[in-house]
Amino acid sequence: MKFFSRKAAVASAVALGALTAVPVMAGPASASPTQCSVSFNFSTASSTCLGGTGEHRIVCFYTHHIPGVGTIMGYGPWAPVGGTSSTYCPPDRVTNTFVELR
C-alpha cells in the first residue's frame, strides 16, 4: 500500500510540473482601426479609417420607400486601414449609420 501512495504522489508531482512548465502563449496583438469618419455623397455612405490596424466597413440602416416594409440594413465591404468602404444609403431615409470594426 505504501508503494501505491508513493507512486501516486510521484505521478501527481510530475503532472503538476508538466502543467507549470507549459508557457503561456499570448495571441497576436491587434488594434482596431482608429480615426474613422463617415461621409455621404448623394445616395452613398462611406467610411474611412486612418490609424490602427484591422478592417472597417460602413453600416447604414434606412427605411424602405414602401410603407410597411421596414428597415433595410446596408453593409459596405470590409476595407483595410486607409481604404474606403461604401454602400447605398439614401440620405432622406437614414435611421442610423456607423462604422463597424474588426
Automatic annotation (TrEMBL):
<keyword id="KW-0732">Signal</keyword>
<feature type="signal peptide">
    <location>
        <begin position="1"/>
        <end position="26"/>
    </location>
</feature>
<protein>
    <recommendedName>
        <fullName>Secreted protein</fullName>
    </recommendedName>
</protein>
